């Protein structure tokens, strides 16, 4: 009937409306039998690596317009398990498609073990020789958001001028690298000198700047793009989006991947000059990676080839142990992370 373990997991104490703090979270324990009723379709997973993503903050709010949009954005109630993307190993299965010891990727949880009901948010994982953490980031949803967001939403042409915000982050660093490999001119912004150096020296960005040192973002972007921006890949929203729109060229495209500066401040808004939108015929399109699955095969094969040929760099920021989840998450909103933030829960 399976052995019993004490499962440690992270929950929120109350809804979070503002910047998250470590004290908003608590580590709970509960006894868990590593057994699944045959025919139940339940899968018990030992979590190995879990993803730490900004969108989870919107789920933790008392109210967010995101809550009713798509099933992975549903609200999280205080005390509840927090489901999150990640990689784990099956320890018990009542589902015909999964067996003990299978490696799986999909929606697990911020804890040591996950009970996945119905198993339909999981799939078997063949790591194909890549570290398991890569399947959480570059070969997971960050990679898909970057690749699909850039190629399907921005529809780039070679030589176009691309601006990326939160450019040293998980999605941003990949957008910049894909855009360079495709043949665009790429400038990124990030929140520290060390991040700016990484973009220019390791990731091949044509240029980069620290937005925290700039006082007038419109003129900053004019300085970096004297001939205008063709594509803006937005991860932050608010003032940066306004400044980018002011500097866009005719028929420019803005892909709105996320608006992290607005997640912690519900009063913040972007108010781009709509005359720019009309007369420059600018497209602003929000998207979710889940909508881009038709480009998945292309994304995975291209990215694996780039990895095998050493053409793309993997930037990961990994903390150890379930106890580090709250600070890893809080750090996203302070710019602590460089590249994909992951918590490694256990060795393989
Ligand atoms: P990330 O960029 O790895 O981490 C967040 C980064 O955002 C921080 O390191 C920080 O870097 C920057 N940041 C934090 N607060 C900020 C603020 N107030 N203003 C400007 N920058 C701020 O996270 P990610 O997972 O790659 O996500 C990036 C964005 O894409 C988020 O908005 C996220 O919600 C979105 N996203 C969307 C999809 C989708 O399907 N549409 C999928 C994945 C992610 P600095 O040091 O540079 O400030």
Could you characterize what this model shows?
It contains ten helices and 15 strands. With 348 residues, the chain is α/β, with parallel strands linked by helices. The strands form three sheets. Strands 3, 4, 5, 6, 7, 14 and 15 form a seven-stranded mixed sheet that branches. A six-stranded parallel sheet has the order 10-9-8-11-12-13, with helices on both faces. Strands 1-2 form a two-stranded antiparallel sheet. Strand 8, helix 3 (170-182) and strand 9 form a beta-alpha-beta unit. Helix 5 packs across helix 6. It is globular and about 70 Å long. The chain binds NADP nicotinamide-adenine-dinucleotide phosphate. NADP nicotinamide-adenine-dinucleotide phosphate (NAP) binds at residues 53-55, 141-142, 145, 166, 168-172, 190-192, 195, 235-236, 257-261, 287-289, 332-333, 335, 337, 341.
């Amino acid at each position: 009937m399976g052995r019993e373990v004490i499962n440690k997991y992270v929950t929120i104490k109350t809804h979070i409306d503002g910047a998250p703090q470590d004290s908003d979270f608590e580590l709970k324990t509960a006894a868990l039998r590593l057994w699944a009723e045959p025919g139940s379709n339940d899968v018990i997973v030992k979590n190995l690596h879990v993803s730490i993503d900004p969108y989870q903050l919107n789920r933790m709010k008392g109210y967010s317009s995101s809550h009713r949009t798509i099933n992975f954005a549903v609200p999280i109630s205080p005390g509840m398990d927090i489901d999150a993307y990640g990689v784990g190993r099956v320890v018990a299965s009542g589902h015909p498609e999964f067996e003990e010891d299978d490696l799986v990727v999909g929606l697990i949880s911020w804890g040591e073990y996950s009970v996945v009901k119905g198993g339909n948010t999981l799939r078997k994982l063949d790591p194909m020789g890549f570290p398991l953490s890569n399947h959480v980031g570059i070969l997971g949803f960050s990679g898909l958001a970057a690749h699909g967001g850039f190629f399907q939403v921005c529809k780039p042409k070679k030589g176009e001028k691309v601006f990326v915000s939160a450019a040293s982050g998980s999605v941003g660093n990949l957008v910049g690298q894909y855009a360079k490999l495709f043949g665009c001119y790429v400038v990124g912004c990030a929140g520290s000198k060390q991040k700016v150096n990484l973009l220019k020296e390791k990731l091949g960005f044509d240029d980069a700047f620290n937005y925290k040192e700039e006082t007038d973002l419109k003129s900053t972007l004019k300085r970096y793009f004297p001939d205008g921006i063709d594509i803006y890949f937005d991860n932050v929203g608010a003032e940066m989006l306004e400044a980018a729109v002011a500097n866009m060229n005719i028929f420019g495209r803005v892909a709105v991947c996320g608006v992290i500066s607005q997640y912690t401040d519900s009063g913040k808004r972007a108010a781009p000059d709509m005359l720019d939108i009309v007369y420059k015929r600018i497209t602003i399109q929000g998207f979710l990676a889940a909508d881009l699955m038709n480009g998945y095969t292309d994304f995975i094969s291209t990215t694996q080839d780039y990895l095998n040929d050493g053409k793309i760099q993997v930037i990961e920021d990994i903390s150890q142990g379930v106890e580090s989840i709250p600070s890893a998450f809080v750090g996203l909103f302070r710019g602590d992370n460089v590249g994909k933030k992951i918590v490694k829960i256990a060795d393989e």
